[in-house]
Amino acid sequence: MKILLEKLIINYPYFAAVILFIIGALTVLTRSNLFKKLIGINIMESGIFLMFVAAGNIRGGAVPILEEGSSRSVYINPLPSALMLTGIVVSVSVTAFALALILRLYKEYGTTDARRIAEIRSGVLKK
Amino acid sequence: MMTVITDNLPVFVVIAPLFVAFILPTFARRLRLVEGLVIIANTLWIAGAAYLASIVLSQNGIPITYALGGWQAPWGIELKAGSLGALFILIIAGVSLMVSFFARNNLTEEVGSYERVARFYVLILLLGGALAGMAVTNDLFNVYVLVEIATLSCCGMVSARKHARAAEAAFTYLILATLGSILVMGGIGFIYIITGHLNMAFASQELGRVWQNSPHVVWMAFSFFLVGFGVKAAVFPLHVWLPDAHSTAPAPASAILSGLAVKGYLICLLKILYNVFGQTLMQQYAVQRILVIVGTLTIMAGSILALTQDELKRRLAFSTVAQVGYIFFGFSLINTKGLSGALFYLVSHAVIKSTLFLAAGAMISATGEGKISGLAGIGRKMPITVAAFTVASLGLIGIPLFSGFIGKWYLLLGSMEAGSVIPAVVIIAGSVLCAAYLLPVIRVAYFEPTPEVDVKDPGLSQKVALIVLAAAVVILGILPGPFMELANMAATELLVLK
Amino acid sequence: MPDLIFALLSGVVGSLIIAVIPQVRNRLRNFAVLFFCAAGTFFSWRVAIAVFAGESAEISGEIGGFPFVLSPDPLGAVFGLIASTLWLFAAVYSFGYMAGKNRQRSYFTFFLLALSATLGVAFSGNLIALYLFYELLTFATYPLVIHERSAEAMKAGKRYILYSLSGAGAILIAIVVTYSLTGNVDFSGEPILAGHRSSGLNFLLILFIIGFGVKAAIMPLHRWLPAAMVAPTPVSALLHAVAVVYSGAYGILRVVYSVFGQELMRTLSFRYIFSWVIAFTILAGVIIATRQDIMKLRLAYQTVSHLSYILLGAFTLQPWGLAGAVMHMISYSMLKITLFFCAGIISEHSGKTRVSSMGGIGRQFPETMAAFGVATLGMIGMLPLNTFWGKYYLMKGSVAAGMWPFALVLTGSGIINAVCFIPVVVNAFRGEKAHTNSGQKTGVALMLAPTLILVVIALFTGLWPGMVWPAVQAVVNWYF
């Protein structure tokens, strides 16, 4: 038990990533409000970003910029951070696109609630 | 000169459609020009793909590698155009050429103004480039980026119609597909954490050494990839988005989405399973059993759900779910016959399903009816469209002389070799169900009284597209030569690599 | 081998030509149908004669990377002969039957297409070709089954196609298993599975028998056949008493003798089970037939029963049994098609389809009912008719194989056949002359002529069985 706790504390960034991921996933799957679903997606993505960045981090490592005369030998791995920049860009564009879709749905149905939309649509179909 | 072309071929086949996609919006107001450009770009693309395929064939499957930006393998992004890539790109380029032919002079009705049509073409080309990239890339993070490009352009196509239902379907698709991408990215993260590599070959080597140190992480990576790509490829319990998305999109988009987009994700999954994890790890974690179970379930569920649909396009969409099951099942067969069968099936389904969706689109827009019963007797009025639909249906059912049969034959041979008899029965049951849900459409179209309404075949370029695609179904079935050879090489290669 | 190609192509080419002849040009179309049927028959005869003379006719190629061989052996030649010759008779009958009816173009298009598919089944030289034509036959005959376009016809068509495709699926699995065991699918030379010994082969046999058994209407896979009787009578006569159902029976003969081989078959214990299923089908089919009031249904269940005669002969694994099977195939086909033709003439010209309403009908249609009566004697297996010889050899084979109960089954079936049909004939010539309620008499001659000619041929071959014996002997010599 103690070892488990210790591991958790040492690896707290991963722990946080998992919590974020689960919060996000729950939000996406359980909320019917379209905005909340979208925010859930964003939270999930943050979890993964955190995991990646934490994987690149080395405790006590320096910023990965070579300096003349510097004697430090341990640098933080810059690659995951760079990748996550791409990831963030992708996530922003997904968000923008989703917002545009929500806008269109709102104009059409006057609500941003997925359940209401389904009700309205089935009502329309019945007519 | 020749070597310059040859060396740059792997990147050319990815860049060509992307490049045209980016310059296209500048001509948005001149639709003729846009359509011409798209067709020219597609022709160039298919020429490049055919050349690539011929080189790969003549080299006996030895891939051409290309280091993007000159950065060599472990650091830079590496493209590796082998037999798998060549096969898949050839089919993407071919199908999207025909689809853009079909879309000529035809899209404004479904999509709207000229500018919207131009943007729609941008999405088609972006998707094509992304799929081609997936087929040749050898870098895990690149896979993620391409998957995202593909997802966004698919969503764009789904929402292309000015229809509230289209927006709704696109939103559902976007949320679920992004969920899938997040899982894929997570899987890539796990691989990176334990191996420190993003290049597939290096990651795979490293994984073979260190997987025993962190078996749970490997397990997590497996499950993230399976679920992530499973959502995107629409395997059974995760298929909920597909019918809406594929049936509300305009006909050319449905053709590309069902025919090609889903296959891109399957190819990615195949590469990650076999090139990164390798067959020993797959067997260690019994992943192939999961694939068998999921695959057979998908076949049955997709087929049965397809039977219950009244709307033609929804029926076809559910049939895509079922056919994905075949390919998924094929991936589980760790032998050359099964894998090459799965790959050939993938190719033939790409052609068949796009024919079916295009023909269905033509029928629906001519009659204004989405229901199957609304197509009564149109076989005489639209002979070419319905004939193309019939040929493609027979292909999907798996009648000899048509391409679907060869895929099914090798899948069956492979499953015999793997000693799994029940999946073989499921494959056959799937074809019988396929007959049960496709033949009524043909029966209604040919053998019911002809309607009074004046419907006729679509325009010339639509007819050409339908005829070429239907001919491809037959030609692939009679002379599968180079395609089967490429599929065979790809399968051998996937099995040899670890 | 040009004859082989011409024989196969005549149906396809003919159907393509007929598809473009306008709906109203009936005479031209009938002429084309007759021409292409005659061509198919002529070239099939030439192929068959060459095969019986010991020449080998083979076309091999590759389709989709699979070996594809057409190479008729005596068994295939016999089947090809039966099918193509009767096709000619059925074509003439169809001209009379279809005169003045709708959708003649679609009818004759698929009628000819089915000829090619059937000849393909007969002449196929490996399992792949057999499977290909077997599937094509299903699709070519489907439009004929639903020719009436009524709800009932659609239902029957659906049942027909789903049964057939499921059967074909079982065959496909079986072929794949065979191929992965041996790497060979050719019929020529040794049986494909010769030299293999394992009890697992029993299950392979099940797959094959289920697959072909659908078309051969083994109980309980027979249910599509009575349903398919909604088709026009010539279709029921030709396809559902001869061509389609024979392709199933032929497939089983192939499986028994060319795929497994008689030596291997003897070691498989499941063959006993199948023999009993077949014996059950023989009796149950004809018993159900006696309970049917609608004439065509009665004939259909009798078909179910008689097809199993052929299969029984195959499963005796004796030369006499095989000879009986082949003999029965030849003779039964002529008489059964006659029975259907007669039923069609009566229903067309008096509107009577039920047995119970056919009292006195013989006065109105004396020639038809006379032909019917003779054919009935043939169904029972009485001497002046050729079916006697088939039945005789079958019994001889059963006894030689030590399966004497089957000889009793055959006798019993003959008696029930008599119970089933003799009263119909007797009633037809008794009592009041039925009222004529039909003004139309179009095409009676065209319908009656093929019927009577077939009866005469059946009588001749019954009196001089030596006329068909060389063919039977060639088949038996080929396998024993």
Number of helices of chain A: 5
- Main sheet: strands, sense, barrel of chain A: none
Give me the strand/helix succession of chain C.
Answer: HHEEHHHHHHHHHHHHHHHH
Give the H and E element order of chain A. HHHHH
Strand content of chain C is under 5%
Structural class label of chain C: mainly alpha
Summarize this structure as a short list of keywords or feature phrases.
heterotrimer; B: 498 residues; mainly alpha; two-stranded antiparallel sheet; 2% strand; C: 480 residues; 18 helices; globular
Written account of the structure:
The complex is a heterotrimer of chains A (127), B (498) and C (480). Chain A is mainly α and 127 residues long. Chain A has a single domain, classed as Helix Hairpins (Orthogonal Bundle), CATH 1.10.287. Helices cover 76% and strands 0% of the residues of chain A. By secondary structure, chain B is mainly alpha-helical. In chain B, strands 1-2 form a two-stranded antiparallel sheet. The longest helix of chain B is centred in the middle third of the chain and has 34 residues, at 251-284. The model of chain B has no long low-confidence stretch (mean pLDDT 88). In chain C, 75% of the residues lie in helices and 2% in strands. Chain C contains 18 helices and two strands. Chain C is globular. The model of chain C has no long low-confidence stretch (mean pLDDT 85). Chains in contact: A-B, B-C. At the A-B interface, helix 2, helix 3 and helix 4 of A face helix 6 and helix 7 of B.
Topology:
The complex is a heterotrimer of chains A (about 130), B (about 500) and C (about 475).
Chain A: H1 2-10, H2 12-30, H3 34-56, H4 78-109, H5 114-126
Chain B: H1 2-23, H2 31-58, E1 64-67, E2 78-81, H3 83-103, H4 108-111, H5 114-136, H6 140-158, H7 164-195, H8 200-210, H9 215-233, H10 241-248, H11 251-284, H12 287-307, H13 312-332, H14 336-367, H15 383-397, H16 403-417, H17 422-447, H18 460-478, H19 481-496
Antiparallel strand pairs in B: 1-2
Helix pairs in contact in B: 1-2, 1-5, 2-3, 2-5, 3-5, 3-11, 3-14, 3-18, 3-19, 5-6, 5-11, 6-7, 6-11, 7-8, 7-9, 7-10, 8-11, 9-11, 10-11, 10-13, 11-13, 11-14, 12-13, 12-17, 13-14, 13-17, 14-15, 14-16, 14-18, 14-19, 15-17, 15-18, 16-18
Chain C: H1 2-20, H2 26-52, E1 59-63, E2 66-70, H3 74-98, H4 104-123, H5 127-145, H6 151-182, H7 201-216, H8 224-227, H9 233-267, H10 270-290, H11 295-316, H12 319-350, H13 361-364, H14 366-380, H15 387-400, H16 404-428, H17 444-463, H18 469-479
Antiparallel strand pairs in C: 1-2
